[in-house]
Amino acid sequence: MAEPDDAGMLRLAGDLPRDCGVRVVACVRDEEAYLADAVRSVLAQDHAGGLHLVLAVGPSHDDTAGIAARLAEDDRVTVVDNPTGSRSIGLNLAMEHEEDGTPGDHAVVVRVDGHTELPPDYVRRCVELLRTTGAVGVGGMMTPVGDGAVQEAAARAMSHPAGIGAVSFHTGGRPGETETVYLGAFRRDAVRAVGGYDPTLFRAEDWELCLRLRRAGGLLWFDPSLVVEYRPRRTLRAVAKQFWRTGMWRREVVRRDPSTASPRYLAPPALVLVLALAVLLTVCGLLVASPFVVGAGLSLPVAYVVGVLAAAAHAAARRPVLRARAALVLPVVLVVMHVCWGAGFVRGLTARAAADHRA
Q: Of 79, 110, 231, 351, which residue is most buried, by most CB within 10 angstroms?
């Protein structure tokens, strides 16, 4: 059993056996294109102990629920209803679901998404890392892959520092202690001890859980040799929507706990404010017929565009070299990511988004 002691330190009792029970959890909706492959990759794991997958299925606009029901014909898969569509609520439902035929003695919880695929040794290696490092959570690299110009460009942007920042699980690094893990494999008792995922957060819920685990004294461990394949959004509109919502919820996390603010999270909103200032300066310069003021206003977005083009060229030229159509779209994808994330952060959480669990 794991629980915070009087000093807030997470205490772990007992060794974690190599063949311990593992529950894999996922919160899914609108995953018709990828869900079957994601589940197949989970069921193909070479872990020596018991393994069970629980899918929390939210309201979808496609056949996600039907596909999940057919996949649950395998007795290693269970489907639970997640009417809110919220990731944090769905993940908690999946972790805590117990019924006849659903093993409840798992010591490790492994999170996946409906658009990810695991290598066959992923679960086994996660358990081994939990055992050997004494960590409460471990994770590795998110390796984005795409099919089509926008998805390919989004995949390359997410794996470059200019896209989402120089975070280890995006851009790589050395094995060791980390602030957060991508998806993550966790000791179940440690997650329970800190209360699971925060049900009031519908984005940034994974980062916030890792924050509470660390504050309770738990160790999080990153290993770049752990690789999860991830499929980004396929259209510019979907990318914009994803990053807008992420920015809003990141603002909410910072509002609740200002100590979580960092240059990486503040850079996109700062960019949006600078670009807004540039527009204002340019308009004022035109009104007063001042070439100097107009030039000052235009210099800011021009400098940003030049920086984006340089970053896109660097990212596109990395191995394997990006295909021509995706390379042409890449600068646009980078701008959409930066501006939508930053604008969402500046706008902050809307009342509608806070009330809508599908936001």
A: 110
User: Which CATH number goes with the domain that contains 80?
Assistant: 3.90.550.10
Same domain membership, residue 190 and residue 267 = no
* Residue % of the chain over a pLDDT of 90: 65
Residues 65 and 95 in one domain: yes
What is the DSSP secondary-structure string of 146-214? -SSHHHHHHHHHHTSHHHH-S-HHHH---SEE-S--SS-EEEHHHHHHTTSS-TT-SSSHHHHHHHHHH
Give which of 102, 113, 138, 134 is closest to 123, Cα–Cα.
Answer: 138
Peptide bond preceding 320 in cis form (omega within 30 of 0) = yes
Q: Which two tokens stand for residue 141?
A: 């690299």
In the three-class reduction of DSSP (H, G, I as helix; E, B as strand; rest coil), residue 320 is classed as coil
User: How many domains would you assign to the chain?
Assistant: 2
Of 234, 269, 295, which residue constitutes the final position of a domain?
A: 234
pLDDT band at 104 (very low <50, low <70, confident <90, very high): low
Whether 249 is in a domain gets the answer no
Beta strands, E only, the chain:
2-4, 10-12, 22-28, 51-57, 77-81, 108-111, 116-117, 137-144, 176-177, 185-187, 220-230
Parent domain of 89: 2-234
d(CA 275, CA 296): 12
